[in-house]
């Protein structure tokens, strides 16, 4: 529900506006002075402010400036008499969305309010969409060397017309990388069209990609443009290219060679300028051996190739990804929740076979299902809790003192880190953020040395 603040010193007009807008379903507050408006605005959130230009002491122009200073996204509509229209124009220059001349009809104010809030919703949705595109699988979040390598790849290939082949396990963010390539190219103002080649049956897929003519098959009652035409001057992203049927592979190969094709059931040759980015989690060389993927198509696609690393190979990015997704979903779900260091440790230590998508889904599920202000181990999905005994030290007897408890946990933490790093002291000290000399001292203190396997029979 949109929230509106009405600022009007004439109590009659103020009450009518408040009642009318409430009847339209808005959450409306009204005040009679600019001072009260600013005071209320600093402690509350409003989507739109309707203010009279002429107010005692603090006028509407000053209210506008203070509101915009506090919240640049809040819309302000100025009400003014005919004689002060020049001031209304000045208000527009200062950031007002619109002005309305007194006397006005209630229908006129309703239309202006509806239009303003509709435009605001579209603007907010565009911002959210752009953020989602940039952060959906987390490639924008990541400072590891492997993540940096991907960023450099995106910048290097973005403005080349050459096809790009993106390889990697499921959930590593192949579509996001494709979108980033598009967004960083000169094609950014034209369509980015994504097709999942594994999601459609062979006959449907060909029509979806290349379009069809009327009467081409049963049910083809009208001509239809395919994704290639829709992506003209933009980018066509073919996900799961390894599942593309052989007949369709022939048509794709021809397009890559000649930039031309025919619609299903058509004879006219069409030419479009669409850059192709393909992706797969399959071994295409193995598919070529099995005769399920054309070798000539592979070489056409395999000009510029990038293999995205799985999350377990860029583990140092996990804490940042956790914070990113935690912030995102607590805001989206309107939940004020905290995550404990123990839970973070478990999320960090898990191997995430489904990669960033699995991490994102796990965090969303935790936030949705948890009813507590602080998320505990009990709130974790079962597959994460199964390995807890390897991550969290077991409970200690009550008669053990504070120093012994600290030393026990310290030894356990160092032991786990050493095991994860195959007893490589440099990697372990980096992981624990410990000076190497301190690590060696602790290893000696707790007798933490890799036991060599005996070769004696």
Describe it for me?
The protein is an alpha/beta fold and 457 residues long. It has helices at residues 11-23, 34-43, 60-70, 85-93, 106-135, 145-157, 174-183, 202-210, 227-230, 246-258, 284-289, 295-301, 318-332, 341-349, 355-369, 382-385, 402-420, 425-432, 436-445; strands at 3-7, 27-31, 48-52, 75-81, 98-102, 164-167, 192-196, 235-239, 260-261, 270-271, 275-280, 304-307, 338-339, 374-375. The protein folds into four domains: 3-131, Response regulator (Rossmann fold, 3-Layer(aba) Sandwich), CATH 3.40.50.2300; 145-309, P-loop containing nucleotide triphosphate hydrolases (Rossmann fold, 3-Layer(aba) Sandwich), CATH 3.40.50; 314-388, Helicase, Ruva Protein, domain 3 (Orthogonal Bundle); 393-457, Orthogonal Bundle (Arc Repressor Mutant, subunit A). Strands 2-1-3-4-5 form a five-stranded parallel beta sheet, with helices on both faces. Strands 7-8-11-6-12 form a five-stranded parallel beta sheet. A two-stranded antiparallel sheet has the order 9-10. The radius of gyration is 31 Å and the shape is flat.
């Amino acid at each position: 529900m949109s929230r509106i603040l009405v600022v009007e010193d004439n109590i009659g007009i103020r009450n009518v506006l408040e009642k009318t807008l409430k009847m339209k379903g808005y959450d409306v507050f009204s005040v009679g002075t600019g001072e009260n408006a600013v005071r209320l605005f600093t402690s509350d959130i409003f989507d739109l402010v309707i203010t009279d230009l002429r107010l005692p002491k603090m006028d509407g122009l000053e209210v506008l400036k203070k509101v915009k200073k506090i919240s640049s996204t809040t819309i302000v509509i100025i009400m003014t008499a005919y004689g002060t229209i020049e001031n209304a124009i000045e208000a527009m220059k200062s950031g007002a969305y619109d002005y309305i001349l007194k006397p006005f009809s209630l229908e006129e104010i309703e239309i202006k309010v509806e239009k303003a809030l509709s435009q605001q919703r579209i603007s907010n949705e565009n911002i959210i969409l752009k953020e989602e595109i940039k952060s959906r699988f987390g490639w924008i979040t990541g400072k590891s060397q492997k993540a940096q390598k991907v960023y450099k790849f995106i910048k290097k290939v973005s403005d080349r017309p050459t096809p790009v082949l993106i390889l990697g396990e499921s959930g590593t963010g192949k579509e996001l990388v494709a979108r980033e390539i598009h967004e960083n190219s000169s094609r950014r103002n034209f369509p980015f069209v994504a097709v999942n080649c594994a999601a459609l049956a062979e006959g449907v897929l060909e029509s979806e990609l290349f379009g069809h003519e009327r009467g081409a098959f049963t049910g083809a009652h009208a001509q239809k443009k395919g994704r290639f035409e829709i992506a003209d001057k933009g980018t066509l992203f073919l996900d799961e290219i390894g599942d593309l049927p052989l007949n369709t592979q022939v048509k794709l190969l021809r397009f890559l060679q000649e930039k031309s094709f025919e619609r299903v059931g058509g004879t006219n040759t069409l030419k479009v300028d669409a850059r192709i980015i393909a992706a797969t989690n399959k071994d295409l060389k193995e598919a070529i051996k099995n005769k399920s993927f054309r070798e000539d198509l592979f070489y056409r696609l395999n000009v510029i190739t990038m293999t995205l690393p799985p999350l377990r190979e860029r583990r140092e990015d996990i804490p940042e990804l956790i914070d990113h997704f935690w912030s995102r979903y607590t805001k989206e779900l309107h939940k004020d929740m905290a995550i404990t260091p123990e839970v973070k440790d478990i999320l960090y230590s898990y191997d995430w076979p489904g990669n960033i998508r699995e991490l994102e889904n796990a965090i969303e599920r935790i936030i949705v299902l948890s009813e507590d202000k602080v998320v505990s181990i009990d709130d974790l999905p079962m597959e994460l809790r199964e390995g807890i005994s390897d991550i969290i030290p077991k409970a200690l007897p009550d008669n053990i003192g504070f120093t012994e408890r600290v030393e026990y946990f310290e030894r356990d933490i160092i032991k786990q880190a050493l095991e994860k790093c195959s007893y490589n002291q440099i990697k372990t000290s980096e992981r624990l953020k410990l000076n190497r000399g301190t690590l060696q001292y602790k290893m000696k203190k707790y007798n933490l040395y890799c036991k060599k396997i005996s070769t004696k029979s």
